[in-house]
């Protein structure tokens, strides 16, 4: 059977009662006949990228023009664990089709696979008719199968160039690569390839990390052997776990001794001075010999993240000995240490400016919580590594902070925040206080002076009264001016502050004259007595 396409028309023929024939040419029907069935319909026809380990669902349907002999549907390039269900169903237009549904978990090994749905139609011939539809599956996943290759080989000589390549599979394929060497905590290099000139210290174990937007993976270590350099010593444990502060650390280092008469010497670096070291030459089960060194010390927070090295030095008959070493990083767990506060911009700030207090501390692990306090305030002020606020007149004072991690806490020493305007505000108070004290002292001096004058005046009055009772007419006056008027009262002084001392004088032999008399023994500045109206 072969393909054929043509137009078909409706024709009407009548034989009775009169023969009549008519063909309707205006509305032909086009019919195509093919020996190849229609291809099955695969949905979705275009798969969007799916994340690794998510469920993928696909459907496939094929026409069944002969329900008694429906097509068989099969799938290709799907995981063995996929779940497939197939059935014959009737469509709304009364025709029938075979429907198949498949579900499976997406894996990185399915990435970029062409998944096919094939419909096979049975025939009465030797060959069945087969048609298929294909869709490409794109899976997103983090780096897989990460490994390193070395060029030219694993065994290289000093002075040659060597290239290490980090290879990995990922989707998307845009990756970042980071290189490491065992015993060195920091990264060696960034990039897919690491190229360097080999030195005697280049030997060791290298590894790389590949990373894309969905994750990362680290390769296994690969050892680079330098041909003319002895094997590096073996440091155990090779991967020291985190140790608690004040706990005991035990490390062992062994180096091959191919010549027992000239064995290598083993030395340690970055260990505490108080460490206890024992070294001995020992025979291994295979009858070869090696130098074995053991070190014991107490872990301190100051040893955290130190690279402890074991170096084996082999004597040679040339000027330079050959040295190889192995390094490991010590990680110590400890509560916060060296907790202190820094102030920005300075210890002395002005009202209205922003100030930031930062609480700094060392701890392992480094995830810490911070609490702020101020002297004189019972409750805590705030939480967080930094305390930022706008300065007012009451902001001055002593501040401290407490740093806490899972192993303990430590409180910093207090730091004094000085508000500059507070000094200016106190200056008028100080000046007023000094002026007040000075005025008070001046008043006391005036009162003392006044009391002394009063005492002197009282003494003068007392002496005048005593002299009036004696035979001698003594006048003890600073100034006396007495005017006697007949039949008239003595005129009193108008000013109350004018003080006049009076004395009694006997005028038994009155004389009309002015008399000025000096009295011995008394100091008289001026005395004048005037009498009138008598013979």
Question: How would you concisely characterize the structure shown here?
Answer:
The protein is mainly β and 535 residues long. 9% of the residues lie in helices and 48% in strands.
Topology:
Layout: E1 4-14, E2 20-33, E3 41-43, E4 50-51, E5 55-63, E6 72-76, E7 83-90, E8 96-105, E9 113-121, E10 129-137, E11 139-151, E12 155-156, E13 161-171, E14 176-181, E15 189-190, E16 193-197, E17 204-212, E18 215-218, E19 222-226, E20 234-236, E21 243-244, E22 248-256, E23 265-269, E24 276-283, E25 289-298, E26 306-314, E27 322-330, E28 332-344, E29 348-349, E30 354-364, E31 369-374, E32 382-383, E33 386-390, E34 397-405, E35 408-411, E36 415-419, H1 420-468, E37 480-483, E38 527-530
């Amino acid at each position: 059977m072969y393909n054929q396409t043509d137009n078909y028309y409706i024709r009407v023929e009548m034989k009775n009662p009169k023969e009549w024939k008519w063909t309707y040419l205006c509305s032909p029907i086009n019919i195509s006949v093919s020996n190849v069935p229609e291809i099955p319909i695969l949905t979705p026809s275009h798969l969007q990228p799916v994340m690794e380990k998510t469920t993928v669902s696909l459907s496939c349907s094929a026409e069944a023009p002969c329900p008694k002999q429906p097509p068989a549907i099969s799938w290709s390039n799907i995981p063995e664990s996929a779940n497939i269900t197939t059935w014959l169903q009737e469509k709304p237009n009364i025709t029938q089709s075979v429907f198949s549904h498949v579900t499976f978990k997406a894996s990185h090994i399915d990435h970029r696979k062409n998944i096919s749905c094939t419909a096979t139609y049975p025939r009465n011939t030797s060959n069945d008719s087969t048609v298929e539809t294909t869709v490409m599956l794109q899976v997103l996943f983090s780096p897989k199968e990460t490994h390193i290759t070395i060029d030219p080989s694993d065994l290289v000589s000093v002075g040659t160039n060597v290239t290490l390549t980090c290879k990995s599979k990922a989707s998307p394929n845009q990756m970042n690569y980071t290189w490491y060497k065992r015993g060195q905590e920091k990264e060696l290099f960034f990039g897919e390839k690491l190229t360097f000139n080999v030195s005697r210290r280049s030997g060791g174990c290298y590894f790389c990390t590949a990373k894309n937007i969905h994750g990362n993976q680290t390769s296994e270590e690969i050892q680079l052997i330098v041909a003319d350099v002895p094997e590096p010593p073996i440091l155990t444990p090779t991967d020291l776990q985190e140790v608690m502060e004040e706990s005991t650390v035990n490390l062992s280092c062994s180096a091959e001794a191919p010549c027992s008469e000239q064995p290598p010497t083993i030395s340690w670096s970055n260990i505490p001075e108080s460490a206890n070291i024992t070294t001995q030459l020992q025979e291994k089960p295979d009858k070869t010999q090696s130098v074995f060194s053991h070190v014991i010390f107490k872990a301190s927070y100051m040893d955290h993240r130190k690279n402890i090295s074991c170096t084996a030095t082999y004597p040679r008959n040339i000027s330079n000995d050959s040295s190889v070493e192995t390094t490991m990083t010590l990680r110590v767990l400890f509560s916060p240490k060296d907790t202190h506060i820094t102030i920005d911009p300075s210890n002395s700030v002005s009202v209205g400016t922003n100030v930031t207090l930062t609480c700094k501390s060392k701890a392992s692990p480094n995830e810490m919580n911070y609490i702020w306090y101020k002297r004189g305030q019972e409750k805590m002020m705030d939480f967080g590594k930094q305390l930022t606020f706008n300065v007012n007149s009451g902001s001055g004072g002593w501040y401290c902070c407490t740093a806490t991690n899972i192993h303990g806490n430590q409180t910093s020493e207090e730091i004094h925040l000085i508000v500059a305007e507070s000094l200016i505000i106190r200056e008028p108070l100080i000046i007023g206080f000094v002026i007040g004290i000075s005025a008070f002292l001046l008043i006391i001096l005036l009162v003392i002076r006044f009391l002394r004058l009063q005492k002197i005046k009282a003494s003068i009055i007392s002496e005048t009264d005593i002299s009036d009772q004696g035979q001698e007419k003594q006048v003890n006056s600073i100034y006396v001016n007495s005017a006697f008027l007949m039949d008239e009262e003595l005129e009193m002084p108008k000013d109350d502050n004018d003080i006049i001392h009076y004395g009694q004088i006997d005028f038994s032999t009155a004389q009309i004259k002015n008399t000025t008399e000096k009295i011995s023994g008394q100091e008289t500045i001026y005395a004048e007595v005037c009498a009138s109206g008598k013979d």
